[in-house]
Amino acid sequence: MNVVHLLPSPHQYFFLAVSLLQSTIANSRRTDKRRSPVDFDVDVDTGFFPPHPLPHLPPAYAIWETALAEAGNMLSLGEDDSDPAVAKRISGQIWRSQVLSWPVIDTEPLQVNLRLLQRAHLVLSWLVHYYVHSAPPAADGVPFTVPESLAIPLVAVSRCLGMAPVLTFADTVLWNWDLVDGSLPLSIENMRFVNLFSGTEDERNFYATSAKAEFRGIEMLRIIDEYNNIPNLSDFTSISKVARDLGRLSGIINDISDIIQSVRPLVDPHVFYWDLRPWFEGSDAKGPSAPGWLYEGVPDSENLDLSGPSAGQSSVMHALDIFLDVDHKLRQRRYPAPSDGNKRADHGFMERMRRYMPGKHRDYLSSLAATPCSIRELAQQTPALREPYDNAVMALKKLRDLHMRIACRYIVTMSRSTPGAHGGCPVASMMDRLQSSRAAGNGPIRGTGGNELSLLLKAGRDATRRTLLKDN
Ligand code: HEM
């Protein structure tokens, strides 16, 4: 036999090479060492929550811890003229002058321990918001100076953690709890929120609602992780699993919608808008032209991210957007085409909110975004997956519809509320003042980062809708 006939022809060589390349790519999905969630400080059981309460800071930082523990009793909102608030003016001045007299404490010893860094971020960012918002309102056009005793260490620990030097979702929700029963593991029933600006149950319930959504998201993180680790996405068993998991995902998103809806009886909109939200405001809350905060002793302080906390910083919600491939930045040509309002909205909001997440969680999201095969592309190519995929997207679109109604009830409606609606509450005079100051020249209702709220939320909802395969 002529051995030459046994050798492949040039044509066959070409196909052999292509198929070898394809199988290498497929295998690379199988053998690629994906980093596990634990590498990103994401726990198998508690997700983005640390599995245990954060430890308190060592004695060298006792002045910070003590000031935080005392702040609730000593301080009131600077713009609040009610009798109980005015009664705290003297203690507030003492508290703030103590902060001004503090030395700048070196944070380097904390760098050996991630949990201590997180605790330092929590303590200092709460102190900054207490300091800023308990002070008498600043004169128009003058930036507010945050003293170096807070600003310098907060910026230092934030750089180590890779996150914004301001109060964030992590400081108010992910890290702000203790165990009810220390002998039992963390669960939504076994967690108690510790630091509260207003001291109200409404505030506690507000954090607990976001925490419930985070907890419900843990199963979703497992689904995403399992999807990213399926060795071969072309066989029947894998496709059936993906279809089933998309069904589970729709159920989880519906549950998160129910959780968001559950704030209605638990959080009074007046308490939220007038007693709590003012403490959250960041440097840019009054819009781009208003003077912001100055971090004393920090070079280029005007370039810091200082917008304040938002559930828009919840990594669970970002993971969902990434997994389903929601295009908030309008980079893809998708249908229905963006409305004029969608085009005018702040498309960078969600991406900016990632800078407020702990850096490791942001890296985790980047690792999800770098998945070799997006589930949207897979569903596009696989008829059996189109419907389950679209159902999950539709569930997320409904979540955003419902969330818009909540934001409208708690913010837009409240911004127009009259003091009388608070039911004869003694803070009426302060509300009058607040209401008129907020109505005067502040333009549209603003969310975190001074963005136009309704444009922003509608744009997010519409971007989600454009993710549907059936319209594309
Ligand atoms: C009383 C309850 C709530 C109110 C008043 C509210 C209000 C807002 C507002 C005003 C924004 C715009 C950005 C900002 O200013 O922060 C926002 C964004 C956002 N909120 Fe909420 N929120 C509430 C509860 C929740 C909960 C429980 C979640 C659950 C995860 C959530 C998830 C989000 C997300 C993901 C965004 C980013 C925008 C988007 O994805 O559409 N919110 N929220």
Can you put this structure into words, describing what you see?
The chain has 472 residues and is mainly alpha-helical. The chain has a single domain (57-465), classed as Methane Monooxygenase Hydroxylase, Chain G, domain 1 (Up-down Bundle). Helix content is 56%, strand content 3%. The chain has 20 helices and four strands. The strands form two sheets. A two-stranded parallel ribbon has the order 1-4. Strands 2-3 form a two-stranded antiparallel sheet. Helix 17 (375-381) crosses helix 18 (383-415). The longest helix has 33 residues, at 383-415. The protein is globular. Mean pLDDT is 89; it is low at 1-8, 11-32, 419-434 and 436-441. Protoporphyrin IX containing FE binds at residues 209-210, 213, 260, 263, 267, 272, 310-312, 314, 317, 400, 403, 406-407, 410-411, 447-448, 453, 456-457, 460.
